[in-house]
């Protein structure tokens, strides 16, 4: 069995970092674009106010009039501290598991996506919890408010920092699994349809949109449940009145997942568990298509940059060798990319041994 070349080994070693960076930047872009819709969705999820797409313009107008235009992106800047590691870890884990689980099957792809979603959620959950609470509190938010919110949550111990993690994982595991596996399956279909076996940017956007639509529709009730648990004590569900942070932390009885779902059902019926879903049908496909496509674009650019860098390094090595055999190992190493360093050092030593044997003869 042929061993992998040093260059390919180096690239595979560095690929997790490229996946982390590409996924993080892709997530930041997607979240920023849909942030206004995300904030409105959370506001309706945690109250008993009825929602319909026709009410969306009036809701946006009310927020702009009372809090200003930038309030539509309230908490988005500090949210980026959570989005980058969340999306980055998710894509990194998924790419890694795809390599480990080869040859891939639909079941293995589903497992890889589910695991990636669970790991990223656990790693960044306290930041998501703080962001959800800031989203339903009136007034401007800043990095200082975000820090204070984290401190308040941390003062209650790990149970406070991870309040709502159960419905998050129950929803995220199938959600991420369906999203990633559906996206991979649709891309495979598109490649078979195309004569060159490649997938176009437009097809990538379509695959991401459809996969996001399917995944979010399947687990939406758990998303409503986790938001209600995250903002427990900050809002009055029946009245829909937004309360201040300090008052909210002093009130409210902590409920389990089933108790929270029961409360939502008693307040609003089965429709309460799906409130805002129509908005998600609009927001989700946009976010997913942008995220998946941007991830591919950034990672391809990083791959091209790495390849050109290695090519320049190899040209420099050839130039040094042509200048004369007097170059030392240290000189060659200084101009050699890590992927070829070991190979060139061994080659240089073999050449020196041959020269020494010739002199002895």
Task: Write up what this structure looks like.
With 361 residues, the chain is mostly helical. The chain contains 13 helices and two strands, in the order ααααααααββααααα. It has helices at 6-45, 56-67, 76-100, 106-135, 143-154, 158-161, 165-193, 201-230, 245-250, 257-268, 277-323, 329-334, 338-360; strands spanning 235-236, 241-242. The chain has a two-stranded antiparallel sheet. Strand 1 (235-236) and strand 2 (241-242) form a beta hairpin. Helix 1 runs antiparallel to helix 13, helix 7 (165-193) packs antiparallel against helix 8 and helix 8 crosses helix 10. The chain is globular and about 80 Å long. Belongs to the mitochondrial carrier (TC 2.A.29) family. It is found in: Membrane.
């Amino acid at each position: 069995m042929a061993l992998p070349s040093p260059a390919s080994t180096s690239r595979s070693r560095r690929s997790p970092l490229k996946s982390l960076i590409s996924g993080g930047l892709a997530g930041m872009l997607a979240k920023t674009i849909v942030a206004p819709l995300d904030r409105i969705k959370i506001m309706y999820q945690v109250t008993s106010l009825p929602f319909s797409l026709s009410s969306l313009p009036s809701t946006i107008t009310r927020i702009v009039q009372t809090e200003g235009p930038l309030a539509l992106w309230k908490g988005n800047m500090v949210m980026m501290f959570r989005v980058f590691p969340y999306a980055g870890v998710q894509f990194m884990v998924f790419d890694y598991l795809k390599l480990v689980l080869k040859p891939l099957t639909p079941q293995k792809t589903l497992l890889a996506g589910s695991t990636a979603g669970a790991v990223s959620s656990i790693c960044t959950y306290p930041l998501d919890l703080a962001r959800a609470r800031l989203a339903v509190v009136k007034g401007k938010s800043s990095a200082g408010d975000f820090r204070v919110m984290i401190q308040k949550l941390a003062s209650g111990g790990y149970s406070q920092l991870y309040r709502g993690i159960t419905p998050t994982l129950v929803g995220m595991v199938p959600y991420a699994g369906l999203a990633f596996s559906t996206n991979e399956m649709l891309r495979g279909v598109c490649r078979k349809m195309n004569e060159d076996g490649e997938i176009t940017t437009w097809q990538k956007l379509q695959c991401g949109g459809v996969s996001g639509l399917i995944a979010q529709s399947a687990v939406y009730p758990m998303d409503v449940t986790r938001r209600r648990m995250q903002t427990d004590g900050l809002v009055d569900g029946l009245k829909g009145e937004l309360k201040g942070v300090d008052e909210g932390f002093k009130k409210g009885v902590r409920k389990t997942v089933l108790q929270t779902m029961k409360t939502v059902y008693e307040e609003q019926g089965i429709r309460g568990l799906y409130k805002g879903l129509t908005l998600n049908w609009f927001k989700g496909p946009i976010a997913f298509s942008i995220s998946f496509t941007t991830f591919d674009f950034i990672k391809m650019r990083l791959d091209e940059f790495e390849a050109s860098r290695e090519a320049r390094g190899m040209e420099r090595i050839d130039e040094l060798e042509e200048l004369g055999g007097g170059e030392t190992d240290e000189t060659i190493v200084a101009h050699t990319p890590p992927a070829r360093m070991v190979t060139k050092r061994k080659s240089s030593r073999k050449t020196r041994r041959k020269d020494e044997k010739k002199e002895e003869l």
